[in-house]
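Preliminary data (for renewal application), fe (ii) ion complex.
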Amino acid sequence: MTARQYSPFDRFIHGLDQALRTTLGPAPQPSRPNPAAAHAEVELTTAERELAGRLMRINHAGEISAQALYQGQALTARLPTVRDKMERASVEENDHLAWTEERIRELGTHTSILAPLWYAGSFAIGALAGIAGDKWSLGFVAETEHQVIRHLDAHLARLPEQDAKSRAILEQMRDDEARHATAAIAAGGATLPVPVRQFMALTSKTMTSTAYWL
Ligand SMILES: [Fe+2]
Ligand SMILES: [Fe+2]
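Predicted structure:
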């Protein structure tokens, strides 16, 4: 039996379907249990709960972007093997999306109202990275993941000490993102030029500071 060949149009429709599900649909079914489940809910002050909710909203917005980046790249990546790898990574990011969304609800707040915007922007950037070629596209994944790790570290330092549930999620995400970065480099990812890395950091700064409030 031969595998079905998908046309660019098929892939476009598939991408659109993913976009709508990611930004407007319910949280995806995670493939692994939520790491927060192993920890008891603790008493948080109103200010602590609010801070944790805002930080988790930023992380959720980041995961929406991760989905979009991977899906954008999957649309334009040249080598089928790279496309497969990207799609697998995007499935793994699903867990992060579902876990952070669950925690946001528990903390009594909402996901970013600008999710469709984060998705659209990141999808375009991911698709451009895919067009630039597979070594750049993989290098882009590695750099994105490195920036996410730095950002998760900063959140782990800011989260209320006793919020073990949120911490457990971020710690597991940190491990996963590190694995994604290593895999992208091992698959031939190139180191991105400094201006590109700076532009990426600036874009993510814009998103994180907005998602804190909205
Ligand atoms: Fe992630
Ligand atoms: Fe990742």
